[in-house]
C-alpha cells in the first residue's frame, strides 16, 4: 500500500508532466516564423515603453503583507484548536478568545494608523 | 547497507533544497534568489511530509512559501533602486567577506557538533494518529503561556513594522 | 450505479494483482490511471465550462453568446483550443526569460494538485488526508507566487501592476477564507474531508454556518480573481494584467489553471457547506457534480450582476468587514456550541 504522502508525491511528479506535455505538443504544431525585433518588444498598447518596470513600489504593499502574515499565523494556531474544540472545554475557549483579542488589538492599531488604507 | 526507496526520496529532496539554497546565495538577481528560497521552503515541507508530519509540512508551505515569501518580495520591491541584475552580489569588502565566512563556519561547526552528540530516539515510521489534536492539547495545556506569548509576539511585530513604515513614509 | 467507479478501480487492481504484480505496484498503476482520469476530466470539463460561461453571460446581457459553430455554438471552445495550440510563442526580449517561462507551469501544477484531496463521491478520493482541508488552503495559497512570477517575469508595466494588485488582493482575502472554515472545523471536529462530509449527514453546514458560507463565498471570488473582484486583470485599465505578454499555449495554461481553480474551489464549497456527495436518489458522484455546477452558476451570476469595485474599497472590504465578521463568527460558533452543551442537547 502507498502511504498518503507518497501518493501525493507521485501525483505531484505526474502533474509536473502535464504542462510539459502541453507545451511540447504546442511546440510541435505551432508555426515558428523568424522573430523580428519589433515583435519581441514589450507590449504597452502600441506606445514604446519608457523607463524601468522594476521600480520601487509603495510601502502599502509591504504593510498589507505584514498584517497578513500575522493573521496567517493566527489561523494556523486556530485550526488545531478548532479540531479539538469539542473535547477541550470552556477553559480552552477562553484562552482562544484572549488569543484572538490580542490580535484584534493589532488589527485595530493597523486600522487606526491607516496601514489598511489603499493609496 | 542497502539503499531503500525512502532514502532515495530523501536524497532527491535534500538535493533540491541544497541546490535551491545555494541559488539563494549565488544568484545575482535578488528576485531570483527569493524565488529560489521558495523552492527551498517547499523542499523542506517535502521532508516534513516524508516524516509523516503533515500538518507541520503544510504550515511550512502556507506560512513560509505562501506568506513570508510574499513579504520578502514586497520588501524587495520596497527598497529597489538600482538595476535588478546586480542586486545580490558578494560584498567587495574583503573583511566583511571573511567575517561572513567565519560566522558561517562557526554556525556549521555548532550545528554539526550538536547533531553528532544528540541521541535521536528511534520512533516508529508511522506518525501519531491524531497529530493535530495532540498539538491542540499541548497548546491549550502545558504550553498555554507560550501560546499566548506567541499572540503578543505577533502583535509586537505588527505594531513595530507599522511604526517603522510610518517613519519611512514621512521621510519620503 | 452507486459504486460504479469504485468497482472499476477494484476490478483493475484485482486484475493487475492476478497478473502477478505486488499490491504496491497495483496501487501505483491505479494512481496513474486516476491521475489520467482527473487531468482528462478537468480539461474536457473546462471546454464545456468556458462555453457555458460565455453562453450564460450572453443570456444575462440579452445576447446570444457563441452560436455559429455546431448546435448552440458548442464547438466554439474546441476551435479556440485548436487556435491557441497553433499560435506562435512570443517571449518579449526584455522579459526575465526563466521566470516568464516557468510561471504558467507552476500555476497549473498548483491548481491540479488541489484535486488530490477532494472527495468526488462515496469513497472516491485519491488521498483521504487527515489534514485534507488544510492541504487545500495551504497549497492553494501558492498560486499568489505564480501570479507574481508571471507579472515580474514579463517586464511589462501592466503585468507588474496587475500582479502586485492581484497578490495584495489575494493575501487580503486569504485570511477571511481560512477563518470562515474554522467554524465548520469546530462543528465537524476534523480536518479530514471525508469526516466533514459525514458530519453533514443530518444537516448541511450551510444551515449551521450561514455567515461562514457567505464570507467564504466572497473571499473565494476574490481569491479566484473573478468579477466583481477582477481588478488585477481589469481589461479596460490594465490590458490583461499579469497575462498581458503571454501568447499561445502559455496563456492557455494560465486560463486553464484559473478554471481548474474555479472548479476545485466550487467542489470544496459543495463538500464543506452543501453536504458533499450526499443526496437522495442519484449516485454520489453525480451529486457532487450537480452541486459543483450550481455553485459555479452562482459565480457566473455574481460576475454579471455586480460592477467591478475599486481597489481601495476592495482592500477595506476584506480587512475592515470580512475579517472582523469571520472572527465574530468563530466566537459565535464557540459560544453556541457551549450553550447547547450547557442546555444538555
Short synopsis of the structure:
The complex is a heterotrimer of chains A (119), B (172) and C (345). Chain A is an all-alpha fold and 119 residues long.
Describe the structure in your own words.
The complex is a heterotrimer of chains A (119), B (172) and C (345). Chain A has 119 residues and is mainly α. Chain A has one domain (4-34, 50-112): NADH:ubiquinone/plastoquinone oxidoreductase, chain 3 (Methane Monooxygenase Hydroxylase, Chain G, domain 1, Up-down Bundle). Chain A has helices at 4-29, 59-83, 85-88, 90-112. The longest helix of chain A is centred in the N-terminal third of the chain and has 26 residues, at 4-29. Chain A is flat and about 70 Å long. Chain B is mostly helical and 172 residues long. Chain B has two domains: 5-92, NADH-ubiquinone/plastoquinone oxidoreductase chain 6, subunit NuoJ (Four Helix Bundle (Hemerythrin (Met), subunit A)); 128-172. Chain B has helices spanning 5-26, 30-50, 54-79, 94-117, 131-140, 144-171. The radius of gyration of chain B is 20 Å and the shape is globular. Chain C is globular, with a radius of gyration of 21 Å. The two termini of chain C are 38 Å apart. Chain C has helices at residues 4-18, 23-60, 76-85, 97-113, 132-140, 143-154, 157-188, 193-198, 205-208, 210-223, 235-238, 248-273, 284-305, 311-343. Chain C is mainly α and 345 residues long. Chain C folds into two domains: 1-86, no CATH class; 94-343, no CATH class. Chain C contains 14 helices and no strands. The chains are: A mainly alpha (119), B mainly alpha (172), C mainly alpha (345). Chains in contact: A-B, A-C, B-C. At the A-C interface, helix 1, helix 2 and helix 4 of A face helix 2, helix 4, helix 7, helix 12 and helix 14 of C.
Biggest β-sheet strands, sense, barrel of chain B: none
CATH level 1 name of the largest domain in chain B: Mainly Alpha
Secondary-structure-based class of chain B equals mainly alpha
Proportion of residues in β-strands of chain B = under 5%
Distance between the termini of chain B: 63 Å
Oligomeric state of the chains in view: heterotrimer
Instruction: For the record, give the distance between the C-alpha atoms at the N and C termini of chain C, rounded to a whole number.
Output: 38 Å
Portion of residues in helices of chain B? over 70%
SSE pattern of chain C, N- to C-terminal: HHHHHHHHHHHHHH
Total helical elements of chain C: 14
Unreliable spans of chain C are: none
Here the CATH topology of the largest domain in chain B equals Four Helix Bundle (Hemerythrin (Met), subunit A)
Number of helical elements of chain B: 6
Sheet of most strands of chain C: none
Amino acid at each position: 500500500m502507498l502511504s498518503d504522502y507518497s501518493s501525493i508525491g507521485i501525483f505531484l511528479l505526474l502533474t509536473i508532466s502535464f504542462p510539459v506535455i502541453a507545451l511540447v505538443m504546442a511546440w510541435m504544431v505551432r508555426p515558428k516564423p523568424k522573430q523580428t525585433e519589433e515583435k519581441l518588444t514589450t507590449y504597452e498598447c502600441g506606445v514604446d515603453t519608457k523607463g524601468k518596470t522594476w521600480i520601487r513600489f509603495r510601502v502599502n504593499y509591504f504593510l498589507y503583507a505584514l498584517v497578513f502574515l500575522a493573521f496567517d499565523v493566527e489561523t494556523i494556531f486556530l485550526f488545531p484548536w478548532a479540531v479539538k474544540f469539542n473535547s477541550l472545554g470552556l477553559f480552552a475557549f477562553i484562552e482562544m478568545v484572549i488569543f484572538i483579542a490580542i490580535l484584534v488589538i493589532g488589527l485595530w492599531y493597523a486600522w487606526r494608523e491607516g496601514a489598511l488604507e489603499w493609496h | 547497507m542497502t539503499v531503500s526507496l525512502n532514502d532515495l526520496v530523501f536524497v532527491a529532496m535534500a538535493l533540491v533544497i541544497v541546490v535551491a539554497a545555494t541559488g539563494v546565495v549565488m544568484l545575482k538577481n535578488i528576485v531570483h534568489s527569493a524565488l529560489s528560497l521558495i523552492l527551498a521552503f517547499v523542499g523542506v515541507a517535502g521532508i516534513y511530509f516524508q516524516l509523516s508530519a503533515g500538518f507541520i509540512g503544510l504550515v511550512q508551505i502556507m506560512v513560509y512559501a505562501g506568506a513570508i515569501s510574499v513579504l520578502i518580495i514586497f520588501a524587495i520591491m520596497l527598497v529597489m533602486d538600482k538595476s535588478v541584475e546586480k542586486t545580490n552580489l558578494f560584498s567587495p569588502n574583503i573583511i566583511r567577506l571573511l567575517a561572513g565566512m567565519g560566522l558561517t563556519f562557526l554556525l556549521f561547526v555548532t550545528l554539526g557538533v550538536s547533531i553528532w552528540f544528540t541521541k535521536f530516539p528511534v520512533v516508529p515510521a508511522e506518525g501519531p494518529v491524531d497529530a493535530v489534536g495532540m498539538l491542540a492539547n499541548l497548546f491549550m495545556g502545558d504550553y498555554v503561556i507560550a501560546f499566548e506569548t506567541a499572540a503578543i509576539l505577533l502583535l509586537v511585530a505588527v505594531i513595530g513594522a507599522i511604526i517603522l513604515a510610518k517613519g519611512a513614509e514621512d521621510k519620503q | 450505479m452507486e459504486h460504479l467507479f469504485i468497482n472499476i478501480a477494484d476490478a483493475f487492481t484485482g486484475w493487475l494483482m492476478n497478473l502477478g504484480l505486488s499490491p504496491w505496484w497495483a496501487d501505483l498503476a491505479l494512481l496513474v490511471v486516476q491521475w489520467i482520469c482527473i487531468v482528462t476530466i478537468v480539461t474536457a470539463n473546462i471546454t464545456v465550462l468556458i462555453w457555458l460561461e460565455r453562453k450564460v453571460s450572453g443570456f444575462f446581457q440579452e445576447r446570444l453568446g457563441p452560436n455559429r459553430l455546431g448546435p448552440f455554438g458548442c464547438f466554439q471552445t474546441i476551435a479556440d483550443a485548436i487556435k491557441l495550440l497553433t499560435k506562435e510563442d512570443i517571449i518579449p526580449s526584455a522579459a526575465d526569460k526563466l521566470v516568464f517561462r516557468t510561471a504558467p507551469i507552476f500555476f497549473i501544477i498548483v491548481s491540479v494538485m488541489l484535486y488530490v484531496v477532494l472527495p468526488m463521491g462515496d469513497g472516491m478520493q485519491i488521498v483521504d488526508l487527515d489534514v485534507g482541508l488544510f492541504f487545500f488552503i495551504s497549497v492553494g495559497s501558492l498560486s499568489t507566487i505564480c501570479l507574481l512570477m508571471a507579472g515580474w517575469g514579463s517586464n511589462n508595466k501592466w503585468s507588474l501592476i496587475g500582479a502586485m494588485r492581484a497578490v495584495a488582493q489575494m493575501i487580503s482575502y486569504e485570511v477571511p477564507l481560512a477563518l470562515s472554515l474554522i467554524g465548520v472545523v469546530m462543528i465537524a471536529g476534523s480536518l479530514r474531508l471525508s469526516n466533514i462530509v459525514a458530519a453533514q449527514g443530518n444537516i448541511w453546514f450551510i444551515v449551521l454556518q450561514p455567515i461562514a458560507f457567505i464570507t467564504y463565498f466572497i473571499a473565494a471570488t476574490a481569491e479566484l480573481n473573478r468579477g466583481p473582484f477582477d481588478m488585477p486583470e481589469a481589461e479596460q485599465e490594465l490590458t490583461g494584467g499579469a497575462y498581458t505578454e503571454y501568447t499561445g499555449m502559455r496563456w492557455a495554461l494560465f486560463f486553464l489553471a484559473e478554471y481548474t481553480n474555479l472548479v476545485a474551489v466550487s467542489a470544496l464549497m459543495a463538500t464543506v457547506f452543501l453536504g458533499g456527495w450526499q443526496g437522495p436518489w442519484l449516485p454520489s458522484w453525480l451529486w457532487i457534480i450537480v452541486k459543483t455546477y450550481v455553485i459555479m452558476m452562482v459565480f457566473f451570476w455574481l460576475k454579471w450582476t455586480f460592477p467591478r469595485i475599486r481597489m481601495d474599497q476592495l482592500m477595506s472590504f476584506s480587512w475592515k468587514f470580512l475579517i472582523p465578521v469571520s472572527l465574530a463568527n468563530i466566537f459565535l460558533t464557540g459560544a453556541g456550541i457551549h450553550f447547547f452543551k450547557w442546555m444538555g442537547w
